[in-house]
Every structure is written in structure tokens, then in C-alpha cells.
Amino acid sequence: MEQNYDLELERVIDEIKKNNSKTILLHLPDGLKPKAEEIQAKINKETDALVLIWAGSNFGACDLPVDTERIGVDLIIHFGHSAWVY
Fold first, then answer.
1. Which residue from 9, 50, 67, 77 has the highest number of Cβ atoms inside 10 Å of its Cβ?
2. Helix axes of 36-46 and 9-19: crossing angle, nearest 10 degrees
3. What are the extents of the domains in the chain?
4. 18-21 — which CB contacts under 8 Å span 24+ positions?
5. pLDDT at 82
6. Domain 9-78 falls under CATH 3.40.50.11840
């Protein structure tokens, strides 16, 4: 059964434009990796940014890719798929 997630892509796109980000890294947990190309396509359609997809791990908010500035990443979009408890 496929889950429907609100990925807030309009908010992501606004942030990319606001920061004039040129190289974006999508950081997705395994459950969202099947949507990577769809997310990438939407961002490509709305911005001029180069969108890279992280194929490594994503075990939560503390598992960010390191040394990404070395390859020119100026914005990491880190997604999760668990509900936040307020």
C-alpha cells in the first residue's frame, strides 16, 4: 500500500529560490527513495538548480551527509517519513 506524504515541495522550491541555491542534495530515507526522481523532476521544472540524489543512508535527522560542500552542494533537502509529535 502506497503512502501519501505531504513533501511540501512548494516550500522546498521557495527555499531554493530564496537562497539562490545552485546545487541541491536530496537526502531521502529508504521509504521515500522510490519518489526521488519525481521530486527531482518537480524541482528541476521549477528552478535552475542541479539536483543530486544521495544514495547513502538516512537514519534520521542526525544522519546528514558529510563533506557535501566539497562537491559544491549549497543546500541539503532532508526528508523524513515519520510524523512529528508536537
1. 77
2. 50
3. 9-78
4. 19/74, 19/75, 21/47, 21/49, 21/74, 21/75
5. 64
6. yes
Cβ neighbours of residue 19 closer than 8 Å, sequence gap 6 or more: 74, 75
Per-residue pLDDT, 42: 96
Low-confidence ranges of the chain (pLDDT < 70): 1-3, 81-86
**Closest C-alpha to 77, from 47, 1, 3, 85:** 47
Q: Is residue 68 exposed (0-12), middle (13-18) or buried (19+ Cβ within 10 Å)?
A: middle
pTM of structure = 0.81
Give the DSSP letter string of 44-72.
Answer: HHH-S-EEEE--S---STT---SSGGGGT
C-alpha cell at 40: 527531482
pLDDT at 1: 44
Query: Rounded to whole angstroms, how far apart are CA atoms 32 and 3?
Result: 10
